[in-house]
């Protein structure tokens, strides 16, 4: 049985491809440019993207999808490495699948509900 959050996450089909411009300066975060190769965009955009296992390097061509907000400016998560730059993708930490991210999100929400319930009981006493 899936929650509403999981169902909504599976419906998202919007996917962006681009190049990792900066990686390793912020924990679990990289900067993504949606202007792959020689194609010219009128207004190229930079995105802060969540990388849970810090598996990306500068120069990688990656695919990103919208995800849950993980900080003030991070709203996307890495889906897969299309073309690794430098070390092969097999030698890096794995990128979590959609099901793994949904399971982690639901576990975090359940823990939060439990903490709030405990805090509410303590206030009543």
TrEMBL record:
Residues 89-107 have a biased composition (Basic and acidic residues). It comes from the Eukaryota. GO terms for molecular function: structural constituent of ribosome. The keyword Membrane does not apply. Keywords: Ribonucleoprotein, Ribosomal protein. Gene3D superfamilies: Nucleic acid-binding proteins (2.40.50.140). Residues 85-125 are annotated as: Disordered. InterPro entries: NA-bd_OB-fold, Ribosomal_uS17. It holds the Pfam family Ribosomal_S17. One of its GO terms (biological process) is translation. One of its GO terms (cellular component) is ribonucleoprotein complex. Belongs to the universal ribosomal protein uS17 family. This is Ribosomal protein S17. The lineage of its organism: Eukaryota, Fungi, Dikarya, Ascomycota, Pezizomycotina.
